[in-house]
Every structure is written in C-alpha cells, then in structure tokens.
Amino acid sequence: MNHITQHLKKKGTWAGLMLVIVAAVTLEATSLVQYYFSQQGIKEEATARAQSQLETSRSQIMDIVNQTEAAVRNSVWIAQWCLDVPDSLIRVAQRVVEDNPVVVGSTVAMVPGYLKKYPLFSPYVCEGPEGLEFKSLATEDYDYPSQEWFVKPMKLGEGYWSEPYVDEGGGEILMTTYSLPIRDKKGEIAAILTADISLDWLTDMVGDIKVYPNAFSMVVSRDGQIMVCPVETLVMNSTVHEAARAMDDADGIAALNQAMLSGQSGNMSVREKGKTSLVFFSPIEKTGWAMSIVIPEDEVYAGIRRVGLMVTLLQILGIFMIVLIIRSVAKNQEKYNNLNSQKERMESELQVASNIQMSMVPKIFPPFPHRSDLDMSASLVPAKEVGGDLYDFFIRDEKLHFCIGDVSGKGVPASLLMAVTRTQYRTLATHYDSPAHIVTSINDGMSDMNENNMFVTFFCGVLDLKTGLLQYCNAGHNAPYILTDATRELDVKPNLPLGIMENFAYEQQEVVMRYDDALFLFTDGLNEAENETCEQFGDENIRAVLHTRRDAEHHLKAMQQAVADFRGNADQNDDLTMLFIHYLKK
User: Fold this and answer.
1) Residue 441 pLDDT grade (very low, low, confident, very high; cuts 50, 70, 90)
2) Which residues of 145-160 are buried (b: 16+ CB within 10 A; e: fewer)?
3) What is the CATH number of the domain that holds 102?
4) Same domain, 172 and 235
C-alpha cells in the first residue's frame, strides 16, 4: 500500500514538473510573440510620426512654392503689356519682389536680339541690406542666356524650377528660381519672368524636424544635389550618388536614392557602420525635390528592449508563482470538486424551476381551436434558466382577458416575483372585468410588501369578442402595436410600473377592434435586443416584420427569426416575450 502511495506522489511530482516546464516554454513563446508584435506596433507608430512630419513639412514647402508661382503668373500680363516699353520692365520685377514676401529677387530677361536697341536686356531687382537694389544681368561677367533658369523655360515653353545655386552675379545667395516664359502678341517667347527664393528658410525648417532625438532630415534636388543636411560640408558640394559610394550598404542606399529621385514616397531600411536606420521619404511636387527623415533603428526600439529585460525578470517570477499555484491547486482540488457538484445540483434545481415557471403560462397553440373569431399565439424565451417575463390569457363570458409583464432584474428573484404577479392577475381577472381595477389591486398588494424595491411593467387588457371593444390599462410597459389598415403604436398612458407607489390612480383606456385587426404585445427584450456592435433591434425593425400580414403563429416565428438574424453571435441580453392577438369577428 505504501508503495502505491509513493508511486502516485512521484507521478504527481513529475506531472507538476512537466507543467512548470510547459509553462516556462509558453511564457517564453508568449514573450517572443509579444515582442514581435510590439516591434511592429512601434515601427508603425514611428512610420506614422515620420510620415506626418513629412506631410507637414511638404505642405509648408508647397505653400512657398505656390506663392512664388502665383507671384509670377499674376505679373505676366503686365510684363506682356510692357514688352514694347522695355524701360518699364524693371517695374514689373520690382512689383514681384515688393508684393510677395517670399520672393527675394526678380528679373524680366529678354530673349537675345528681341529688342533691336538692346541685344541683351535683363533688369534685376533684389533685396539688399538697406532695401531694394536694382541691377542689370546683361553684363559680360554674367551670361544670363546660358543660365539654367533661362534655358529650360525657353526649351520647355512652360514654368520651370531651377536647381539650387549660388547666384554670384545676381542675388549672391543660395537660392532657386521659378521661371515662366512671356509670349508676345504673335505667341512667340519674348522674355523670361523669374522669381528667386532664398533657401535659408528651408534649412531652418528642415533642421527643426525632430521626430526622435537623433533623427535628422535631408532635402535633395532633382539631380541628387544635397540641399539640406546636418553635415554642412556636403551641402551644395556633393550629391547623394557620391555619398552612397562612400557608405557600407552602397547597393541599398543606391536603391533608396533611385526611389527618392524618381518621385516615389515610402520608407526603406539601410545599414551604415553596422547600424540600421529607417529612412522615410516623400517627393515635393513641381520642384522635383525629395525630402527624407532618417531615424536610427536603435532609437526606435530602445524603449521596448528595456521592457524586454523587465519581462524576462517577470517571467522568472511568474514561473516561481506557478510552482506555488500548483501546490495550492493540489491542496484545493477536493474543494473544487465539491463546488462542481454543488454547481451541477444548482443547475438541476434551476432547470426544475424553469420547468415549473413555464408551466404557469399557456403554451398550447392555437389555444382556442374551436373558435373562428380569434387567432392567438405567444412565446416566452428567458435570457437565463429562469426569467422575469410573464403573459397570460383566458376567455370568460365571451371576453378575452390577457396580460403581459416584465419584472425588473433577472434570475431567481425576478422569477419569484413573476409567479406572484401572474397568480394575483389570474385571481383578480377571474372575478373582475375592469383592467384598471385589476392593475390597481395588484399594485397596492405589491407596493405594501416591496422591501426589495423591485417593480413590474405590466399591460392588462379585456377584449369583448362580441363587440370588438378593447379596454386596457398600462403600467409602465411598452406600448403594443395595433395592426389595422396601418401599423402603429396603440395610444397608451404610461402610468407607473407595479410596486412603486401604493394607491396610484391607474387610468383605463379603450378602443374598438374590427375584423382582421390585430394586437402585438412584447417586452423590451425585443426592441432592446442587441447585436455584436451593441446596436438595438429597435421599433423600425419591429414595424418592418409586422408590415407583412400573417397568422398569429407565423407572425411570432417571423419576429423570432428577424431578432435572431439581427443578434447574430451576440448573447441574448434580456427575456423575450411576445403575444399576438388577431381579431376575426365579422
């Protein structure tokens, strides 16, 4: 006997050890999965920040570009008008500079030989230390007809942004020029109107971008010339192609340069000196420039790596806790078995209670098969084993007595109050025909002993099957729908639910039902049924189902199917009760 006991203990020890090993492996696998997805999330967050900053900076640059182009376009007509008066062309350039803060210089450069009096003519206005300065670009030292800003628009016949340059004979600063051809009355290009913008603002703006502390930004021209870069010696002295050849990952950086200079946007990873960086880039339209933000990968993932170390320590602590839990589980297994037995017993008792509760409501349909003047059907589906909804009906003295109710709350307390309410209703309705008297009597009896502050919404009606007169009284319940020539809510006074205030004066109402009229009663488990996104079934869906006339049984089946389709995989959140009365007295 002792041998068997030791064997079982040894077997349990090995099972516990295996459980610890499995738990350790699971924790490590979980950590790796979490680490992977965390990396992805951080990368996505870094991408979003970089792209947002790129878009913001691109928008700021495009504002300057658009302002400059607008300044030139708005002055073209004046320049065309002044072609015959060349001495006034300097006023055109002056107007472009004075009226546009972003423009630092402007000229109207005539096509060589267009003016017989002046073989070369190009008055230039620019901002100087003490105000506007007036110059001429038609000098021996400055051959303006050979400059890019003149040659390209002449060739293309449209506006053109030049490559960045230091205009030693003009503005004497690092700048770029927007040029637009001016055509004479014959449609021939007579001159080029320009607007120069300094690139100092671009350097300041890009230098202020700090997505991460050690991140930096670059701007390159359409030919790959480095315009803005934290390494000042490379600015306007090197191209990205030359810089790529000097780096470790020459092929990767060459592919990056190709993507940037071809007008693409996106991101790539490159390695330099054993470290990986994420490069986000975007084109700047019209100019042919490209802007990029470079973020060291170590800086992006620095936080998660610190967290990874902490997670490892916590895993060790977790394994230790698992050992303690195994010991605790072994000691309390018998208690859990007892709890399971108790749970099974409770479930069995609840099933018996559910059967008893369902036996208290009519459940044989059609209920009056011998009558041709009435078609009825009802259903009650509790959200739990037992519920708080109720309905009842019977015929006495050629009058149909019926009711429907909904107890506040769910479960056993609600089911007990439901049973009491139904019993009181059946007792009173057997002797009285006034719905208001029945409702008032139930309310007074319930309010007098309502220590748990529970209440019942209730609707009580009496239909005279000979005359069609329907007398009814409502106690805080949903208004039923009456189906005549149209489907509408029955006019009801809300009144208070049962059990809230003793001696409340309930008001009785009446309406006459005619042949083929019907009454649809329901609890809020119908209109407040929710789907997986917490949307409610609502009154519109109820009306849609009731719109098609059917017999009583198929009306309820159609409504149940509509609610089930709407709810989908969501759990039933409340008891659902429906009662359909179809009056067929001709």
Assistant:
1) very high
2) bebebbbbbeeeeebb
3) 3.30.450.20
4) no
